[in-house]
Design a protein that fits this description.
Helix content: 25-40%
Shape: globular
Order of helices and strands: HHHHHHHHEHHHHEHH
Strand content: under 5%
Strand order of the largest sheet: 1-2
Number of strands: 2
Length: 376
Amino acid sequence: MTLSRTLTAAMLASCLTMPALADGHRPEGLAALGPPPIPADNPMTDAKIELGKMLFFDPILSGNYGMPCSACHLPEAGWAVQAPISFGYPGTTHWRNSQTIINSAYYNNLFLAGSSKSLEAQARSAARGGVAGNGEDDMMEARLAFVPEYRERFADVFGDDWPNVRHAYMAIAAFERTLVQTDTPFDNYMNGDDAALTDQQKRGLDVFTGKGNCVACHNGPLLSDQQYYNLGVPPYSGWEEDELAQITFRFELYAKGSNEELYRNTKDDPGLYFRSKDAQHKGKFRTPSLRYTKYTFPYMHNGMIETLRDVVVFYNEGGGTNEFAKTKSPLIKPLGLSDGEIDDLVAFLESLSGDEILIEEPELPVMEPLPTAAQN
């Protein structure tokens, strides 16, 4: 056989072993992201969105006037926190990873265990949470009343004589519904642009929907089935060495209604169990969207996995081990992906993020004395 024939044969064999590209193919179970749903009882207006933007960055909605929404959802950190565990109220620490606000408008339930059913409820829960905002509604409402600009804006948007704190949460939710990304390379590809994905990303899409079976849970436009699974993610390492984190963990166990045995013996986050009190739900968390994940490292509910490649390797090895072994999902098993397939899959995951979303923070109004009644 001549050298040219040998090279031709080798090239043909190489091509035959490569995954087929996805040119022109739009896999079932996935879709481009459309506009976010808007609840009928909280319609969007420009004035409401602008008010919500101000309140998102204003520490006035917290216990110590120092913990705005943006404290744990930093625009330059993927609208999250690029650390395993989110920042906590001063004197505490948080106990779970901070989720990005980007595309949160599409979730049916908010928080990692689905404890809030709307962005409005999530805003209130975060502002009042003991290791988050730690505020009280009446106190925060009184503060808002001392800000002339807020009095004017709440009157204009909601018709309030004095700012109503529940309307503050509605305004924040309206602003958050503008923080969506529907023009990623993946979306452009799904909308018909074959050139929007690279060849490597198309191979990764084939792995995602085929051998990797990622689509079993990461499906639909949001790339999340919004169901709950235990993947065997190891417990947060800080609970072994950080005294404040240990105190916070015990506080959460107690506050969420743990029985004495669970309180004394559990060394890991029970997840969905806190809501259901069903032992079959221990260690389960909602499937996160894979969108915007390029900017939201580290990953998992406790930030115990550092990079997207680490996440893929974790799944490829069949997940991990935690104390809730009985509830680990049977979907989590070794995948047998090669290094090349892992690289391709990571490249595809990166196509689910577009340009980083950064905004100019608003100028915040200041408090002034309340107006006095006119004297006759």
